[in-house]
Amino acid sequence: MEQGLFITMEGPDGSGKSTQIAYLKEYFDMRGIDTIFTREPGGTPIGEKIRDIILDKANGEMCDMAEALLYAASRSQHVHQLIKPALSEGKIVICDRFIDSSIAYQGYGRQLGDAVRVINELAIEGCMPDITFLMELSPEIGKSRIKLEYQDRLELEKLEFHNRVFDGYQEIAQIYPERFVCVNAGRPKEVVRDEIYHHIDRLLQNRGASCR
Ligand code: TYD
User: Fold this and answer.
1) Were 151 and a residue from 83, 117, 155, 181 both cysteine, which residue would form a disulfide, CB within 3.0 to 4.6 Å?
2) pLDDT at position 207, please?
3) Is the CB of 169 under 6 A from ligand 1?
């Protein structure tokens, strides 16, 4: 059976990921390619309930390891119920955040280190992305783009936390250069879009655009 294509979008809060994901929807819609768009935390009914617990501003007392395990639990259900079955049917799956978010936010941001990789390797059952777009934007600019009243529990963290997350992302991208595409997200959104489209064009050409 043909294997699908697994694309993830990563980046700091406020880096314009959602806008670029909307452009990706347009890209695949225009070409009539059946593509699954999903997100983390969430993506399944159980995952969405976990998401509500994690992001709830009222849950300020949540300890760091519980947070990391909840993200991994949401991911495990997501991989099992949606991502793996779709990929084995040869579909394209585009996920707003995945394992690299946990490594960056919980591993580097919360400073839980390698434990985060270990629990996530259990959660993803070998299902690593084929390509990961990293939207690079300084946390200062990213945070200033999100109004205070809309900031969730993670977004409300101090700038030092977000700086560690950003440094973490850059380190991960250096460790896996064959998987990561780093995109300068400080430019106009159409310029960023065209750069991402260019990479997707190449990806589809390489696999003969046959995953429908
Ligand atoms: P979300 O509203 O989806 O943020 P965004 O629109 O920026 O993607 O909230 C997800 C938040 O959870 C975001 O601050 C990043 C954080 N996060 C982690 O800390 N670890 C993870 O594994 C994931 C998937 C997200």
Assistant:
1) 155
2) 78
3) no
> Domains in the chain: how many in total?
1
HSE-up of residue 85 (Cα within 13 Å, Cβ side): 6
Q: Which domain holds residue 44?
A: 5-207
Helix (H, G, I), strand (E, B) or coil at 36: strand
Closest Cα to atom 14, ligand 1: which residue?
A: 154
Q: Is 195 in the pocket of ligand 1 (CB under 6 A)?
A: no
The answer to whether residue 88 sits within a structural domain is: yes
User: In this structure, is residue 135 part of a structural domain?
Assistant: yes
Question: Residues near 57 by Cβ (< 8 Å), separated by ≥ 6?
Answer: 152, 153, 156
Mean pLDDT of the chain: 94
- Indicate whether residue 152 lines ligand 1 (CB < 6 A): yes
127-144 pLDDT, tens digit per residue, is 999 999 999 999 989 888
Where b means 16+ CB within 10 Å and e means fewer, 121-131 reads eebbeebebbb
Nearest CA to ligand 1 atom 22: 102
* Cα(37)–Cα(24) distance, integer angstroms: 9
2 pLDDT tier (thresholds 50, 70, 90): low
Beta bridge partners of 134: 10, 182
**Which structure tokens are listed for 91?**
């579909």
